[in-house]
Fold LRC49 protein.
Amino acid sequence: VNNCGLQLVIQTSSITDKNKPFEFKINKEQSSFHNRLLQHDLEKNYSGRQDNTNFGSSSSITFPILQRTAEEKILNSDRLTLERQKLTVCPVIDGEDHLRLLNFQHNFITRIQNISNLQHLVFLDLYDNQIEEISGVSTLRSLRVLLLGKNRIKKIANLENLKNLDVLDLHGNQIAKIENISHLSELRVLNLARNLLTIVENLNGLDSLTELNLRHNQVSAIKDVDTLPRLQRLFLSFNNISSFEDILCLADSSSLSDITLDGNPIAQETWYKHTVLHHMMQLRQLDMKRITEEERRMASLAARKEEERKRESHRQTLLKEKKRLTICNIARQWEIQQNRIALVASLNQDKDNEPCQINGSAAYVFPEESRSLDTILSSAVQGLTVLESHLVEVEGDTLCLYGAGALECLDRNWSVQTTGIIVTVSFMFIEFDEIVQVLTKLKIKFPNSVHLKFKETNLATLQQFNALAQMHRIEQLTVDSQGNPVVNFTLWKYYVLFRLNHFNLQKINGVKVTENDIVMAERLFGILAYVASSELPHYRVLSLFGESRRKQFHYLLEGKGKKSGIGSEESDNSRKGGESANRATLNYTTKDIHMEKLEEIKERKTFCQTYVENLVKEAADINMKNESLQKLWPQMFIELVRDAVIEIRNKNSYMKLCLQRITDQKQ
């Protein structure tokens, strides 16, 4: 459009002087519609609006009627520009049915109207007005370019008949949702920048779309973009995209060559460029910068490393979750076991306290007590996930054992490197009596272990600490209060220091041991070892004494192999020479061994009782026979004497009879 001064005659339906036409001049500014059609952004900052002065008074003007002179029609037969004319309504354009380009930029128009007769209109520009809804264009079937940027439109609607639309500019409005455009199969350029969009969707059917501008919205997720077969340029700058998963569908687009994501949270990530280039290898430009082959190669390498890191992170997460579930399962099984033990003890106690008969009748037994333990506790184990019942884990220099089944790991073939670095052994959800049985294996398998931890191990008595004396060396001891009732006993630390004095403990529950603690332990429990040794049989004391001397000898042999520069603590320990014989008398017998001894004692008692009963029975039989003999003996003696006298009365016959008996015996 050329700069020119036009003399337009505007006729209105109601003017004060109807016989005098209303005249005004329009000084047209240069505006290239062709250049605007080819713009990618369509977001140019235009100058501010002029004062909102009405084109005419509403009381005196209904719609202005625009008529051009014949000369103007010849010069610009198919074009009409009415920009910056302070129009509040679209004027009635009379006799211009052949118009193809119509420009209403920078006015105050609130509604599209009075243009339905322009059947040949191809280009309609209503940029920078006050339009609140799309209307009045349904008859413009030839329209190819519709520019409605910088208005007040809240919804995309009433475009059903504009099937030939090529460019649709709706930037700078208040649109919150993409809708009602799937029928625009010829649309090539869609500008929705500076709106209120949060999700990109409903793009199906836009088969010709090559450029989509969504800058300066609130977009956080994108859908359906991969269904656009010809999309080449996508502008997503300054939105709320924070992860690549939000735009994952872009990786499936084979036609996309230019994309902008600057101004989004995702663009601040270190992996941003590499990830985008790795998943969208067809891109030629990213954030308006051309992509080189070196950048593609580096992106592919970095993306592979990132993928490996993510897989490893995911694997570690799965392992941690599996560990957590396994430990929870072990803890539940431990709780069930403890409840079972408590229930057995309660039933046994009730059984011992329950009289067999009351007034000749059996005592009443509660139904709950008559049920089996499995029946009582079956509800407790229902619904548990089938997981490992134990867990063995090496974390740095710590060996963690969860569940009784973990103790079997001591029989494995551990590598020399692993056994050498283990310093701390942690026991959780394992009965202490079961731990005692593997302490010998522990000190052989992990000779450098100097720190023992116990949590939920049922340490209940001071006597149980005696079992730790068989370890090779202990420098630290940690007994968690959870699941170990012995910690509630105030003097338990002093007893540990006294009984394990030969280990020269450094810390107990993370607290450093002082000389005052050792002195106090000796004062409190020193007499205990003397009493224990005095109560033992003499042969047992001698055997313990000999064992202690052997330990001293072995300790001295080990000391000779060490370098001369040993520390003062080791020197003190070597002078002590292992545990004393008195302390060795304080030992611990596990429940199983104690039960075996009780069973053995019971068997011996039964045997002795049976033996004595047999002796008494035999003695009673002998006594009864003796009494019977005493009663029968006088009569038996008389009969013996009588038989003897009768036999020897005939001496010759008696001698022959004796000789005959002798002969019979020889034969």
Summary: The CA atoms of residues 655 and 661 lie 10 Å apart. The two ends are 167 Å apart (CA to CA). The chain has a mean pLDDT of 77.
